[in-house]
């Protein structure tokens, strides 16, 4: 008698308020003010929440992208998600979805990110309604990425409240006042980068800013600091620092998204705080080694090279 297969895991919901078509060009050199003949760029559905879903999907974990989508790139966006095997619940809107371009050279990565266009109040209501409908069946909710113009104040806090009503953990990766509101609303974790942290809290010391943000809520602040690693800070001020034992060369686009994917999965699995921090740091580094955002390479090897230090 054949054994029954294990039931699939519940998905991680990835709310992406400002999706994009991501285009990546890899070149030997970028010379400003001249023409370049390049190989065909890599083009696929993107935005931070989509990249989170891609990393989870690569790891064999089900994820659902929830996003507004519109304009000429809608067909390409949907086709790419379907081809990638990533589930989605999309709100069709009138506003065209933006594009982002990453130009990767040995000297570094240049990013050209369209701001995106505003969507209507009805579009926001429909987006949140989908989140509310899908939340009870999810393992974790993620709300991440830039916000389009005229985003309603408190939208990310509303996602946190939906997750709480469904009894689900929620991770938020956003900047500015929306970050503070999400933390105060009870987010399980937030993951700002250095710029987003200072934008929300002011100051110039990431540890101090992370402690002030953490004190506003009940969850954990994971602050990514590029080559300087990552902080984890609790509301009572206790903190840890994680860092790879060497600096990686590659494309940092998508490193923060990989960290959020790692946190979402670690939280879903009930991992300890130090395990969450170590995995997020390793997956962030593994994204730097990948050719395009939404992928990770050598994560297990990097995990063995993470140092975690308590901060007094």
UniProtKB/TrEMBL annotation:
<dbReference type="InterPro" id="IPR011611">
    <property type="entry name" value="PfkB_dom"/>
</dbReference>
<keyword id="KW-0067">ATP-binding</keyword>
<keyword id="KW-0418">Kinase</keyword>
<dbReference type="GO" id="GO:0008443">
    <property type="term" value="F:phosphofructokinase activity"/>
</dbReference>
<dbReference type="InterPro" id="IPR002173">
    <property type="entry name" value="Carboh/pur_kinase_PfkB_CS"/>
</dbReference>
<dbReference type="GO" id="GO:0005524">
    <property type="term" value="F:ATP binding"/>
</dbReference>
<keyword id="KW-0808">Transferase</keyword>
<dbReference type="InterPro" id="IPR017583">
    <property type="entry name" value="Tagatose/fructose_Pkinase"/>
</dbReference>
<dbReference type="InterPro" id="IPR029056">
    <property type="entry name" value="Ribokinase-like"/>
</dbReference>
<comment type="similarity">
    <text>Belongs to the carbohydrate kinase PfkB family.</text>
</comment>
<protein>
    <recommendedName>
        <fullName>Carbohydrate kinase PfkB domain-containing protein</fullName>
    </recommendedName>
</protein>
<keyword id="KW-0547">Nucleotide-binding</keyword>
<dbReference type="Pfam" id="PF00294">
    <property type="entry name" value="PfkB"/>
</dbReference>
<dbReference type="GO" id="GO:0005829">
    <property type="term" value="C:cytosol"/>
</dbReference>
<feature type="domain" description="Carbohydrate kinase PfkB">
    <location>
        <begin position="21"/>
        <end position="295"/>
    </location>
</feature>
